[in-house]
Write a structure and sequence with these properties.
The chain is an alpha+beta fold. It is 32% helix and 36% strand. About 16% of the residues have low confidence.
Length: 108
């Protein structure tokens, strides 16, 4: 339930960021990067999941928001599973200008 509420807030903030970024000289985006590291892999490791969380008009606002999210959602969690073994899930949060997409270029 908490994650669902967090997703609703994030989507709202993203929509707000898109609406305000047109007037800003340089907007900043908080990115979430989730990486799963499997100790006893049963298949290929999954790649990182990178998603934008929210946009801000200044770098300072973005960094404050990233620090808040990092405190509540960040760090490393260990999940044990009989099928997949032990999975370490590491989530990082960081700010980038809205002109930079860490997922790489889009294909045509």
């Amino acid at each position: 339930m908490r994650r669902r509420w967090l997703c609703i807030v994030v989507v709202t903030l993203c929509l707000l960021a898109v609406a305000t970024s047109a007037s800003a000289e340089c907007a900043w985006v908080v990115w979430s990067e989730r990486l799963e590291l499997v100790e006893v892999p049963t298949g290929p490791p999954s790649g990182p999941e990178i998603h934008p969380l929210a946009g801000f008009s200044t770098k300072k606002e973005c960094e404050v928001a990233a620090a808040r999210v990092r405190q509540t959602e960040g760090g490393e969690k260990v999940i044990s599973d009989k099928v997949q073994g032990t999975i370490h899930v590491r989530t990082q949060f960081y700010c980038l200008p809205d002109t930079v997409d860490p997922r790489g270029p889009k294909g045509k």
